[in-house]
Amino acid sequence: MNFANTTKILRKSGVFALKRPGVLAIRTSCLAALVLGVVWNVRFAVADLAARRNQPDRTRLAMRWMPLNGAYPAQLAGEIYALDPPSAKSLLQRAVQLNRYDASSWIQLGLLSEAGDDLPGAEKALLQAGSVDATFLPSWSLANFYFRRENPARFWYWAQKAAQMDPGDATPLFRLAWYVSPNGGEIASRLQIKRPPLAGQFVNFLMAQGDAKAVTEAASQLLTANSEAQTLLGVCDWLIANKRPDLALPLWNGLAARGQISYAPLAPPDAVTNSRFGKSPISQGFDWHLKTVEGVSSFLNDSPNALGFEFSGDEPDGFLLMDQTTPVEERKDYALIVDYGTTGIAPGSGLEWSVTDDRSGAVLARTGSLSAEQGGEAYACFAAPDGAAFVRLSLLYQRQPGTVRVEGKLALKEVRLTGATPEHCPGQKISTSGADSPAF
Questions:
Q1: Torsion angle of C-alpha atoms 101, 104, 110, 114, degrees rounded to 10
Q2: Nearest-CA neighbor of 361 among 440, 414, 415?
Q3: Which of 239, 298, 339, 439 could share a disulfide with 248, CB 3.0–4.6 Å?
Q4: Considering only 9-13, 95-99, 229-233, which range has the smallest mean pLDDT?
């Protein structure tokens, strides 16, 4: 059976029930839709190409080609914003009529209205932005608006919303809140700063303000939340540098107790961190802080443990090589004991340890110059002054008159503080006074 006969049979059976006029109508509708689609695509392409120039005349051309696209009046408003605010406002009104979900245009419209002293219109536009877009920018814009209007209740409401929207950089928001209330505790409560990333930014902001107690309170929240150790170690460094090691010590001990740093909590009398150099110093918190000095290299040995330094002979005439802040008990007699060895370092090397009062910087004790080819110990005895809770242990170098710069190797095996005894300090008078420390 051929195709023609098959077609005749199907028609007689009613399978081909469509009448020819209906088929033509469908074909005509499809063709019209196709033509409209082609025309629309051409108009869109022309408008898009014109708008890409970011020039007012070309953007106006794009508006003529696509008059129902709200993006083009919004773009033109941005291009003429500074030159013609009234026209820009009119364009923004048109943009939000075409697209009521355009939060950016609502915000710009609100700012223009505020600049023109139309405060009700500005508030309405900004609130509309906040209602159609639950991201950071509308809430931040409203917080700014109410800050400028000196309306603290509405400011805190929108500032709190903005803070919960994961801003990439919350510093401007914290700064605005600080102007309203320079109180770290109130800001943390008002903005509900609980998540570690935001809390970490807040701690950094508070350090920039120089408020040690507020920094400590915020950092304690991070510690409770088991935040990453690096942020809290930075806080410890900042507190120590700002003469508040008393506030840093609980944070350090908290990290140690949680196993976030590989040291035991600190407390006198066994209070020197990493005293036997079993680990490479992290140069943070209450561990040893190694300094970078031209002409000096450092290395860590094991079996036995030792922290080593090699001096090239080209180093500066004076420098600080390493130091550590250490807790002590006031009015207690101490001995600093350093177990070390040297290679190639002559007597009178200028390398010595000093102990200074962390509050005043006054030198409490010094060892003699380090030089012991077969290994040896250096001692410095002192009494912690009244009210002293921390001392700084420092390894210093100062070239002595008539000598060349130090050259050779130094290996530190142990640095510890113990109670002073005649064995450690034979015939040595211990005094709470001392000469001023050298400046390096």
A1: 180
A2: 440
A3: 239
A4: 9-13
The pairing of strands 318-327 and 333-343 is unpaired
- The DSSP-derived string for 62-90 is HHHH-TT-THHHHHHHHHHTTT-HHHHHH
Query: 409: Cβ–Cβ under 8 A, 6 or more apart, which residues?
Result: 308, 309, 310, 311, 342, 343, 344, 345
DSSP 3-state assignment of 309?
strand
Q: Rounded to whole angstroms, what are the CA distances from 227 to 86, 99, 230?
A: 50, 43, 9
Cα 86 from Cα 253, distance rounded (Å): 62
Question: E-assigned strands of 129-273?
Answer: none
Structure tokens at 158: 């929108």
Find out whether 286 and 326 touch, Cβ atoms under 8 Å.
Answer: yes
Q: What is the model's pLDDT at position 353?
A: 96
Q: What are the tens digits of pLDDT across the range 166-176?
A: 778 999 999 99
pTM score: 0.77
Can you read off the two tokens belonging to residue 413? Answer: 């095996």
Q: Which residues contact 41 (CB under 8 A, 6 or more apart)?
A: none
Cβ within 8 Å of residue 144, ≥6 positions away: 176
Q: What share of the chain is helix, strand, coil (3-state, %, to 5)?
A: 45, 20, 35
Sign of torsion over alpha carbons 388, 325, 421, 437: negative
Q: Which long-range contacts (CB under 8 A, 24 or more apart) does 66-71 make?
A: 68/98, 69/98, 70/94, 70/95, 70/96, 70/97, 70/98, 70/99, 70/102, 70/105, 71/95, 71/99, 71/102
**Structure tokens that stand for 41 in this block:** 């695509």
Q: What is the DSSP-derived secondary structure letter of residue 425? A: S
Q: β-pairing, 306-312 with 407-419?
A: antiparallel
How far is residue 206's CA from residue 179's CA, in Å, rounded to a whole number?
A: 13
